[in-house]
Amino acid sequence: MTSFERTFPDGFLWGAATASFQIEGATTEDGRLPSIWDTFCEVEGNVANKDTGDPACDHYHRVDEDVALMSDLGLDVYRFSIAWPRVLPTGTGTVNQPGIDFYDRLVDRLLDHGIRPVATLYHWDLPQALDDRGGWLNRDVAAWFEEYTAVSVGALGDRVKHWTTLNEPWCSSILSYSIGNHAPGHHDTLEGMIAAHHLMLAHGTAVPVIRELCPDGEASITLNPTYVWGPENGDEHDADAVRRADNALNGLFFGPIFHGAYPDGMIEDTAHLTDHAFIQDGDLETISAPLDNLGVNNYFPTRVRAARDGEDGSNPMPGCDGVIELAPQGPLTAMGWEQSPKSHQLIIERSARESGLPIYITENGSAWEDTVSDDGAVHDPERVNYLHEHLGAVADAIEGGTDVRGYFAWSLLDNFEWAYGYDKRFGIIHVDYDTQKRTIKDSGLEYAQIIANEHARTRG
Ligand code: GCO
Predict the structure, then answer these.
(1) I want to staple 25 with a disulfide (CB 3.0 to 4.6 A). Which of 58, 61, 335, 396 is the partner?
(2) What is the pLDDT of residues 355-396, one digit of tens each?
């Protein structure tokens, strides 16, 4: 039995999400060539314990087992990402058929179990061969992504009807090129802005391809907006710090994709860095291609203030000179992230207003120090509590009139958590990386019960 009593609209979809590099393993198998994350992992200090994309969850060899677990949970939908370096190992040109075959098998197994596949085209594993040609800093990447989209949607679009182009372009640009914590690990504010523009250009270039090759499908993008709070002191400098941070974290993508323009102040706030020549005529029209829905990944809020006189206000995010990020307010998860269901509701509502689209919560979840008990169970009450509180926030947003159509728990499985390697566990299913044994955690059992109750209530 569950103590969770909130209800959701008929047809609300219950899912879980993963990503190729985080779960598949088999990084050198069947023709796959290195991605920028394979390269990034090889550099000492970039990833905890010098962990790599192997073995991850060995999902490449465990599709049947893992899809059966999804079925045991009662999932309606499963969000996964396609590894560009499996499908087009050098990024363009020759298609690697064994790579296509893997996703064929995955999709067919999902459909056999009545689970709808939701495919993310890009979840950060850019072929290294394309990074060697400039990667997201090279405007040609839009054409490269267009080719990759055509291959993937061409191969799977007869069965995959939900396509999201990019996962969290903020991470692929600002976190990866300006802040440097993610591959390729650059530290240049302007590069992050250029990469963001080219990511959005690639997105806008891919949407017509999805429309052509999957005319009965849905096209979306998955963003990771965060609600930005500042001191409630009426200080104009702090208010401007909130504006600048919100532009760099949210408006940088909301603006071009949904309004065909960069957000107010962004161009002026970065005029000292660039003449913005990378924004060419027609780009914003391409970028703002109409979509069917918006994926929202959200875990925590962001708190900022303005630097005080004499304080070091340097900030690698574009337009954020003088913006100081404040410590999160407890209680915190194992990632040190603030748990704020209220901010989750607020950013869902903001995302719907900005986009004018139906919303899917394409990622939400929490990391905790999980252990397998003597009885073989994984008791994770903190993750259950986080799930209840954040599902409650989604229900509040819906009751307030926001069109939210589904929720994907991050993540189905414990997996490779980027710079944290395998140290951080987000799964509702525990993975023993030595034995690859899967154990549904209490949170997974709770999620399954909530799903079963909702299915019974709405589907009879
Ligand atoms: C992200 C990515 C996931 C992460 C998850 C936890 O949102 O950063 O989509 O790959 O693993 O969010 O950080």
Answers:
(1) 58
(2) 999 999 999 999 999 999 999 999 999 999 999 999 999 999
**pLDDT on residue 3:** 85
Query: How does DSSP classify residue 326?
Result: P
Distances (CA, A) of 82 to 55, 85, 127, 220: 17, 9, 12, 15
Q: Which residues contact 116 (CB under 8 A, 6 or more apart)?
A: 13, 76, 77, 78, 110, 161, 162
Closest CA to 120 of 88, 89, 156, 93: 156
Cα distance between residue 408 and residue 404, in whole Å? 12
pLDDT of residue 150: 99
The answer to whether 77 and 15 have CB atoms below 8 angstroms apart is: yes
Asked whether 168 lines ligand 1 (CB < 6 A), one says yes
**Using a 6 Å cutoff on CB, does residue 410 contact ligand 1?**
yes
Q: Choose, from 363, 417, 446, 454, the residue flagged as catalytic.
A: 363
Phi, psi of 454 (to 5 degrees): -70, -40
Strand, coil or helix: 64? helix
| pLDDT averaged over every residue in the chain | 98
ipTM, 2 decimals? Answer: 0.92
Measured in Å, residue 425 CA sits from the centre of ligand 1 at 11
CA angle 239, 242, 246 (to 5 degrees): 145
pLDDT of residue 219: 99
Residues 6+ apart with CB under 8 A from 31: 86, 89, 96, 98, 99
Helix (DSSP H) and strand (DSSP E) numbers for the chain = 16, 13
Inter-residue contact 57 to 426 (CB < 8 Å):
no
Query: 212 catalytic, yes or no?
Result: no
**Residue 127 DSSP class:** B
CA of 225 to the centre of ligand 1 (A): 12
- Judge whether 142 and 102 are in contact, CB under 8 Å: no
168 in catalytic set: yes
Contact 334, 368 (CB under 8 A): yes
Q: Is 19 in the pocket of ligand 1 (CB under 6 A)?
A: yes
Structure tokens at 406: 């589904």
